[in-house]
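hi! just following up on the protien thing from before. the input was this:
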Amino acid sequence: MKMFKRFAAALLAGVMVLAMLTACGGGAGGPGESEFEKKVQDVYMAALNKEYGTEWSNNSEVKELATEALNKIADGKIALTAITAEKKPRKTT
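and the predicted 3d structure came back as:
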C-alpha cells in the first residue's frame, strides 16, 4: 500500500509538471502578434478593400477603434446595425 501511494504521488507530480510545461498554446514570441495572426489580418484587410473599393490599411489606431466598437457591442451599449460601412458600387471593367 505504501508503494502504491508513492507511485501515485510520483505519477501525479509528473502530470502536473507536464501540464505546467505545456502552456496555453501561445507562441514563443511572447505577448505580441504571431506571424500567422499578421497574415490573417493582411488577407482580411485585402478582402475588405476589394469588397468596398477602399484602400484601408491595418494600423494600431484602426485596431484600437475596432476593439472599442466590438467591446461596446459585446456589452450591449450599441447595436451592431449602428456600425456599418457604406458599400460603394463595384467598378466593372
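The chain has three helices and no strands.
The mean pLDDT is 75.
cheers
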